[in-house]
Amino acid sequence: MKVLFLCTGNSCRSQMAEGLLRWLGGSVVEVASAGTDPQPVHPHAIRAMREIGLDISRQKSKSMEPFLGRPFDYVITLCDSARETCPVFPGTGKMLHWSLPDPATASGSEEERMPVFRSVREELAAQIDELLAEILEGFLGKLAELSDATQADVSPPEIV
After folding, report:
1. Does domain 2-153 bear CATH number 3.40.190.10?
2. Residues with catalytic function
3. Taking the complete model, does pTM exceed 0.70, yes or no?
């Protein structure tokens, strides 16, 4: 399962989403993030994730260009700007949009801004939980189809 998160700067929302899905999705999900105007990963995003035991400090901001033309099962935009400028990703199963505020635009002291980053982190975690439930439901549906097809191919032995 391949998932791409997109936002404007690839510095906060999409970086936190990438870290959360990589952790929650484990080896089942291949996840990446990118931005329309990449900026360095925001230190408050790193701090917000570190508070829940996740280290995204080694993640790097990336442009969308390296991902163009690659198929994804899900492409998820996290801000209205990215949604409006999002290119077409041929072969993408689903395009989703989660409109989240940009925590980097919060004003005030560091301690006044951190609750905004935490709030976005928690909203992302809730959305990702729903996404993983949808992915699991899809896997289970395919497994049931495979089981039904296998059952139909097995004929009981003839009794003579």
Report:
1. no
2. 7, 79, 86
3. yes
